[in-house]
């Protein structure tokens, strides 16, 4: 998180008057690394998070509001948006779209333990069961169609071996998904890395930053989680963390035969998705603000490890 549009105490105090949240006492800009301006807001009644949307498709913000509110109504640990006294969540502040959220408890887990992995797997499985009934639609903006269209833009910046690696993988993904074209669908988080979760000890306090949220293959979400949460520095999978997540997930939503068949390919595809998106930021479309891009090499390493060693055996769903 970062601040690109500074706000004064007076601006925020006036903004809060439309909401039934109390009177501003302190305002703190939050530093870190995303594309929006984020503030911790303390009133005489509660702790809040205020986000100004600096980039992206603003017409898609109602989808995120609806998704967060839907998941919150189903008692998932997400920051359901705060609506004003007229029932409106999406506002404008400093000429930017603005949303107000409750501040959820906890900290990001740098090195998640097995209890935290189990908690994440359980919650993601529960979320995916619920999200299959969410009525909103936003096609996955980083699926295979996007990979196919965008990977040509980075090829000239890669070594001949990496060019061939990327092109061969895109071909392999297309072949695999022709054989398994219909996977279970629902609403996804789309970017569920460790730094998008908050834990108090072993308790999952919140899943945050749904701005890659979309609808699509539920397996896509799960593969992103495994590639981040259960991967060691050398790119290899950690069996204990892998199994803790997947056993807890499948206790809520068992994977079907098609998902199990395409699982190794989905792990590779989501690794390539992040390798490609980070290459695009470095070489083709740098961020509008002065942020340090994420290192693409991390996901090249993961992709090569998945190719060399394959996927670990999937745990069976509990009976």
TrEMBL record:
Pathway membership: Amino-acid biosynthesis; L-threonine biosynthesis; L-threonine from L-aspartate: step 4/5
EC numbers, comma separated: 2.7.1.39
Record field: catalytic activity: L-homoserine + ATP = O-phospho-L-homoserine + ADP + H(+)
Pfam family, one: APH
Superkingdom assignment: Bacteria
Keyword ATP-binding part of the UniProt annotation: yes
Location of the Aminoglycoside phosphotransferase domain: 27-255
This protein's record includes keyword ATP-binding: yes
Enzyme class, first EC level, given as a word: transferase
UniProt GO MF annotations: ATP binding; homoserine kinase activity
GO BP annotation list: threonine biosynthetic process
Annotated transmembrane regions: none
Keywords: Amino-acid biosynthesis, ATP-binding, Kinase, Nucleotide-binding, Threonine biosynthesis, Transferase
CDD domains (UniProt xref): HomoserineK_II
NCBIfam families (alphabetical): PRK05231.1 (NF003558), thrB_alt (TIGR00938)
Annotated family: Belongs to the pseudomonas-type ThrB family.
Protein name as annotated: Homoserine kinase
Organism of this sequence: Vreelandella rituensis
Recorded name of the encoding gene: thrB
């Amino acid at each position: 998180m970062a601040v690109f549009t500074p706000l004064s105490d007076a601006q925020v105090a006036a903004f809060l008057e439309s909401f039934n949240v109390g009177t501003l006492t302190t305002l703190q800009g939050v530093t870190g690394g995303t594309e929006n301006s984020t503030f911790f807001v303390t009133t005489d009644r509660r702790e809040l998070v205020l986000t100004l949307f600096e980039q992206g498709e603003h017409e898609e913000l109602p989808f995120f509001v609806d998704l967060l509110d839907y998941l919150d109504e189903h008692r998932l640990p997400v920051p359901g948006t705060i609506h004003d006294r007229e029932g409106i969540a999406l506002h404008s502040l400093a000429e930017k779209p603005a949303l107000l959220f409750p501040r959820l408890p906890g900290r990001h887990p740098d090195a998640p333990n097995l209890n935290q992995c189990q908690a994440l797997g359980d919650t993601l499985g529960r979320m995916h069961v619920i999200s299959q009934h969410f009525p909103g639609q936003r096609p996955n903006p980083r699926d295979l169609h996007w990979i196919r269209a965008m990977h040509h833009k980075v090829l000239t910046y890669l070594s001949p071996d990496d060019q061939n690696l990327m092109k061969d993988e895109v071909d392999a993904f297309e072949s695999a998904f022709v054989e398994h074209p219909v996977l279970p669908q629902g609403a996804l988080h789309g970017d569920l890395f460790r730094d998008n979760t908050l834990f108090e000890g072993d308790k999952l306090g919140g899943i945050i930053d749904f701005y890659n949220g979309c609808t699509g293959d539920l397996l896509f979400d799960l593969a992103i989680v495994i590639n981040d949460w259960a991967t060691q520095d050398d790119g290899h999978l950690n069996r204990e963390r892998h199994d803790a997540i997947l056993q807890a997930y499948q206790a809520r939503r068992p994977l079907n035969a098609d998902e199990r068949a395409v699982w190794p390919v989905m792990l590779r595809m989501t690794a390539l998705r992040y390798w490609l998106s980070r290459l695009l930021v470095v070489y083709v479309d740098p961020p509008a603000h002065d942020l340090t891009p994420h290192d693409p090499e991390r996901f090249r390493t993961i992709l090569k490890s998945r190719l060399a060693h394959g996927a670990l055996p999937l745990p069976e769903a509990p009976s």
